[in-house]
From TrEMBL:
This is LuxR family transcriptional regulator. Residues 195-260 form the HTH luxR-type domain. It holds the Pfam family GerE. It comes from Chryseobacterium pennae. GO terms for biological process: regulation of DNA-templated transcription. Keywords: DNA-binding, Transcription, Transcription regulation. It comes from the Bacteria. SUPFAM superfamilies: C-terminal effector domain of the bipartite response regulators (SSF46894).
Amino acid sequence: MDKLNTITSNKFLKLKTNSTENTDYLGLYSNTIENIRRFAISPFFWIIISNREQKTQLVSDNIGDFTPFPKSDWISSEFDFFINLFHPEDRSFLLAAFEFAVDKYFGIDEDTRNATTVNIYGRMLNKDNDYRWILLQSPQLCINQYDQIDSTLNVIFDLQNFKFEQLPLISIITPDIKETQYYKGKNNSIEKNEMELEVPYITKREKEILRLISQGFTTPEIAKKLFISYSTVENHKSNLRKKTGTKTSSALIAFVIRYNLLLI
């Protein structure tokens, strides 16, 4: 298996960029944030980090609901403030995943970049100081005049209510529907596993039902909201479980989150 080396925080900070441009971060990322609100199927918060300053610039208003710190503590915080919220066993692996994702980004053409999904998984502290699994995605990056990543919008999805059989450290899904997974291995190694994906087609109506399931609505409530019958909702849910090879609503939503089916 191919392996990636873990890295330290000090080495990662050397990725700092040298741009001197002033950036309107909220204006730059507002459309992407709004799209995430529309399509998100699990609770989330977002963080905008400047590579130029290696500091957090903006965060979502609800960040205090998902982390031990209020919004005021996050603004202008150093990068270590963010990474230290992750489990000590995960930190060096996550830094390696971030570095690898950056290298991967610059190693492919723009069209492929836009159609590639990078999922990074880790254990992060919640507001009660307990570790739970999260999924981190960076759906938009700002590239400066030196062709460097000037800042990133990082979206963190809370996975504590979902059950996964096994999670990789990083998963990369390419436009040709192939997934490359990297798992934490022995002796601080990161091991690679490639697979062909069988991604099911999800209809518009099924997506509507998935969003409502993820928000905790019952079958009768979904039927009322969508003006369809109880049996129709149950048929859609049954079809979705067959398509995804899952047996429960929780497993179904976990599958959808992992493979970004609402965006396909």
